[in-house]
Amino acid sequence: MKMPMKTTIASLMLLALAATSADAQDAPVPARDIVQAYTQDGAAAREKYAGKPIVVSGAVGRINLNQFGRDNMILDGQNISNGLLVTLAQGESAKGVAVGQNVVLRCVMEKQNMYGGECRFAGTGPAR
Fold first, then answer.
1. Helices (H), the chain
2. What are the CB-based long-range contacts (under 8 Å, 24+) for 39-44?
3. pLDDT tens digits for 52-86?
4. Strands 53-65, 29-30: pairing kind
5. Collapsing DSSP states into helix, strand and coil, what is residue 93?
6. How far apart, in whole angstroms, are the C-alpha atoms of residue 48 and residue 36?
7. Helices H, strands E: what count in the chain?
8. Which of these, 70, 80, 43, 73, lies nearest to 58 by C-alpha position?
9. What's the CATH number of domain 28-127, 3.40.630.10, 3.40.50.300, 2.40.50.140, 3.40.640.10?
């Protein structure tokens, strides 16, 4: 059965719009941009990020275990004053991740601080 041309065009436009909005939601935000947002205007950054899921990307500056035995990483910096602290979710591990390596994580930003929690790997990149 042949679809009318207007219906076909309208359907294609809706599919393109849906794909664009899904891509925008999953587009990684560089960790340095989050740090800069919190540094420039903490209240506005909390409004934008706090309590929300986010895909974040950055170069690993440091890896360590927190007091609960979960891996912490600092992205795009060496410490929490110049990088984004993220904690991996239970069952996730930084084993095999190297300092300098680019990673992509799905996290939920903490409500009060510049901190990504319950992060899961969404991808990794080549070491720099």
1. 5-26, 31-40, 42-49
2. 42/114
3. 999 999 999 999 999 999 999 999 999 988 999 99
4. parallel
5. coil
6. 13
7. 3, 6
8. 73
9. 2.40.50.140
